[in-house]
Amino acid sequence: VQLQASGGGLVQAGGSMRLSCAASGSILRANTMGWYRQAPGKQRDMVSYITDAGFTHYADFVKGRFAISRDNAQNTVHLQMNSLKPDDTAIYYCYYNSPLQGLEKYWGQGTLVTVSS
């Protein structure tokens, strides 16, 4: 499984940005895709995920501001980020896993999001 993330860059506080991630390879229908982020000097934290059935979950620190969606036909996941804050500055990593593949997470290369104040 390979994942290719796109989007990211520099945005002012209060602005919006959309990240996308396309999965390819041995993709199984039953899967979860989502995003983690890692700020400088901090651990990698879960941001949001979405299952193939459309169930979504968000970390408390992004609830009401971020929205995750997916296109199952394209094996793509999107993260719409609104009302961005400087604390959202981090490298964002997309991932894929499937219970039929042992729940091992496959990771994208990471994309940097910088929110200026």
What would you say this structure looks like, in words?
The chain is mainly β and 117 residues long. Helices cover 0% and strands 54% of the residues. It has no helices and 11 strands. The strands form 2 sheets. Strands 2, 4, 5, 6, 9, 10 and 11 form a 7-stranded mixed β-sheet that branches. Strands 1-3-8-7 form a 4-stranded antiparallel β-sheet, with no helix packed on it. A hairpin with an 8-residue loop joins strand 9 and strand 10. The chain is globular, with a radius of gyration of 14 Å. The mean pLDDT is 96.
State the separation between the terminal residues, measured CA to CA. 37 Å
Radius of gyration equals 14 Å
Low-pLDDT parts are: none
* Total of helices: 0
Write down the overall mean pLDDT: 96
Based on the model shown, name its key terms.
117 residues; mainly beta; 7-stranded mixed beta sheet; 4-stranded antiparallel beta sheet
Question: What is the compact description of this entry?
Answer:
The protein has 117 residues and is an all-beta fold.
Q: Any chance you could write out the topology, listing elements then pairs?
A:
Blueprint: E1 2-6, E2 9-12, E3 17-24, E4 32-38, E5 44-51, E6 56-58, E7 66-71, E8 76-81, E9 90-97, E10 106-107, E11 111-116
Parallel strand pairs: 2-11
Antiparallel strand pairs: 1-3, 3-8, 4-5, 4-9, 5-6, 7-8, 9-10, 9-11
